Amino acid sequence: MIHDLSLFIKGYLHHDYPDTILKNTLTDEIPVFCYHHIGRQEFEDCLLHLKRNGYESLTADQYEKALKDRSLVPEKSVVITFDDGLRDVYDVAYPLLKKYRLKAVVFLLPGWMDEPGILTWDQTREMHESGEIDFQSHSMTHPAIFTSPKLIDFYQPKHARSTMWNVPLVEKKNGNGKRTLPPLGSPLYEYSSRFSDAKQFYPNINIQQSCIEHIVKNGNEAFFENRHWRRELIAIVKQLKKTDSQDIRFESPGDQKAEILKEIVQSKRTIELNLSNKIVRHFAWPWNKTGLLTAKLLAENGYKTAFRGMLSGDFKNEGAHIHMVKRINGDFIKCLPGEGRQTFWSVLTYKILRRLKSGPTY
Fold it and tell me: If you average pLDDT over residues 10-22, what whole number do you get?
């Protein structure tokens, strides 16, 4: 939460938020808002503010055209986006968007569709046919990769209870495109998004196998009830590093390019195959981590724009940066000019208090 607060303040001081949000004045810049999980009342309050004050929400295609010619869309235009394709989109957002006749852009992960908590293809087709939801790509599987040999932790039961794609995963042997966690006890190294410019680091298999075997011999999940479990595994790693001569290996540039292409091309094709008359032209960066190689490959493979979050050193959303489009948190919809507008600082304070009380809602 401290990181989030510092990011908000830094964004304010560096003028990274649109003037429309900060200064209660309409400008030519179209604000783009991002959600993950949502609360029903909070989201409806935001949509009420938009509708009460005459705002229109755009599809990704409309937004891309407006970046080239602002006169193509209404003066009061916004973009509402959702990442990951969570069930909240169908259960909460979709009925409310229909109620207020507004649109949203949802960035899907085809490799995770039909999993618990994720949209099904049947739900997605229903929303697509309604015209309320514009489905685009968030990559095939939201992959993370190890990027250095620096050990930061070990896979443990808590990882299985969190969102699966928030740590590096491995391919399932059945080849169905799904990924799963490595066995408990596997070393966890520094990692980042597959779509950053970092190359993948390949762990020492002997070290990994020794840690896994130690877990199995000592009770599997029960092993982690011992408060010194991490110390035991670190000792195993240190000892093997002294005796194992396996070279430190990273992927080749060719392999890196092939893996990125697989994620962005397969995602686009899968969505288009499952939704009638759909052409995917837009992408959202997982974890908001960007890379120049991925941006180049997106442009070469039919992606007109790519959306990220608000990071330090942001620029305004202009045509030269269409594969690095800035988004801000959906709560700030309430800061748009109009009746019932809330100030930037009042919304920020509310967000901090909410997280202190119950954790983030998205």
Answer: 68
